[in-house]
Amino acid sequence: MKIISFNVNGIRAITGRTFIQDMKEVNADIICLQETKATPEQVKEAVTELRDYAVYANGAERKGYSGTAILTKKLPVNVTYKILIEEHDQEGRITNLEFEDFYLICVYVPNSGSELARLGYRQKWDADFLAYLKNLERTKPVIVCGDFNVAHKPMDLARPKENYNKSAGFMQEEIDGMTNFLANDFVDSFREKHPEAIKYTWWSYRAGARQKNVGWRIDYFLVSNSLKHKIEAAFILNEVLGSDHCPVGIML
Fold this sequence. Notes:
- By secondary structure, the protein is α+β, with helices and mostly antiparallel strands.
- Helices cover 25% and strands 25% of the residues.
- The protein has eight helices and 14 strands.
- It has helices at residues 11-14, 19-26, 40-46, 119-137, 160-163, 172-183, 189-193, 209-212; strands at 2-7, 30-34, 54-58, 68-72, 78-80, 94-98, 103-108, 142-147, 186-188, 202-203, 215-216, 219-224, 233-236, 248-251.
- Strands 3-4-2-1-14-13 form a six-stranded mixed beta sheet. The chain has a six-stranded mixed beta sheet with strand order 5-6-7-8-12-9. Strands 10-11 form a two-stranded antiparallel sheet.
- α4 links the parallel β7 (103-108) and β8 (142-147).
- The longest helix has 19 residues, at 119-137.
- It starts with a strand and ends with a strand.
- The mean pLDDT is 98.
């Protein structure tokens, strides 16, 4: 089973580019999308050409903001869109598909913001989201993928010294949040398979950052430790364009 995750930075914008053809060529069993910036109905309309997939989407109360979706060839046994904490459930940040053997959660983790105004909220999100995942894990293993909005180690961004404790995505509080996921028996699938690889998943639109590969690795597949042996491959598809992120994926 091939699963990919892609922050599309607007599903209606990206489908006007090469997204549909790219997804057909990637040919994943499941496609998880973040930052759709659309209602569930708009997401379904935007991806109608991907006829092999059932579409499950979650939108924010605020129009044109946030949003997650999962497109899947394999039908789930259950679908949920909330972690049952009201302040977290208004922004469409998770889509959870339950399959027979595991839960698959697509997540768009809150950004702390350029002025770090949401750093405190972000810390609360990380703690509450981890508790939500661990509660699911009591029933069956968990795969969680998406834009976690944090580079975990200095090797996960091109300019660590310039950004450490100055920029959203590389604040110590955010790093600690990711460390806490990994300390609670979740495995970073890309690092598991590629301990030393320098690859990024997001580039600023400014100053030709993508062409110069001045990037950050902020998109992840975390899997329950009990599923670690099932990860056949983990990959980053740098060549897929259309967003300021690129897709990441695993093969189970």
